[in-house]
Amino acid sequence: MSRTADYAIQGFIYQFIITFQKILADSYDSDITIEGIIEDIDISSPLGSEVFQCKYHECKTKFTLSDIYKPVLQMLVHFNKNPNAGIKYRLHAHFPNEMVGSTKKLIKTEIEQILGSKATKYKTYVTELAGFVLVDEFIDLFEIHFGASLFDTEKSVIVALSQEGFSTADAEEIFYPNAIHSIAEYSIKHSPSERIVKRSSFLNKLKEKKKTAINRWTRELQSYEKLLKQRRKQLSENLNSNGRVRVLLLDSNYINDFEAYVPQLIIDFVNKYNSKIKLNQAPIFSLLCEEDMIIIFGKN
Question: Which of 60, 89, 137, 202 makes the best surface tag, with the fewest CB within 10 Å?
């Protein structure tokens, strides 16, 4: 994986973790839209509307204004269309040199500098904002919130989750990864109304899930090795039980390098879990893939 891809995935993970942090911290059981209509996280509470865009800049040694041109321009475009909505715009960002928990307000000259950008990648935004005059009004509604690193944010979220009645071990190994998995699932729903959650219902659904989710997102969490051990433990009761029919569904849409890894997986599974005499029920492998892949497996 390239460093660019690494950073992109880190950015998504950070956004999901901050989303969960906002859900846990909400005291009004607000409507929280994941991948909101306006920004990454839209919160509608009795106090009004607050929207957050998340940016993770662990590789940056120092915060500079140019690092936030794009999110600020995006927020300016929305504000320009909705100047009387009273929406509070927040940029939640991590920069290693900034104090965690501190906030920053931009000044008029900084907004004007952003609006005057000549960079081609911002041309669409700058053109749309030509003649924008509500700079002071936007400044009143905009703040930068400097957050902790991804690792430290994970730790604080797990602590907050353990204060909801979960044991620390279960919070880290089951409920936290399941929360990130759930948020990732919400984020890809097409309709905005399907992406709205409330703290109470989100936590109630989370408590119902007793198995650790392992997917492309939980693989990126700091505790991934612990999660794998926990998942193996959860599966061991069924896998170690003799004399039962086992059916495994393997879908090429969800397994990278399907044709390379699946034959060896089948061999390893049979050798480990179907090698005893008492295991007289042959496992059934159902493959969802193109027919030519099955032909290749047959030749191997």
Answer: 137
